[in-house]
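Lab notebook, bench 4. The sequencing result for the construct came back, and we need a structural model before the next group meeting so we can plan mutations. Quick request posted to the team channel:

Model the 3D structure of this chain.
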Amino acid sequence: YDAVFAPAEDGGYVLVGLNEPHPELFENMLWGESSVMTKSRFRAAQANLTVHELQQQWDVDDIAGWKRFLALEAF
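Done. Here's the predicted structure in token form:
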């Protein structure tokens, strides 16, 4: 694959891996919006990149996410 994404529950992603730089995937992105992953998928398709998506995960972006992390039994 040219790119690997791990989508986040909130519409962004928790991981991006690329075989080579593709700044067009990220330029003028409205970070923090729920459409980031959707836009990234579209941009990758426009660039004719092969993409693999991992299972959706959650990430820590705010105090609610931090509390969710702290509540994990493994922590």
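The longest strand covers residues 13-18.
Will bring this to the meeting.
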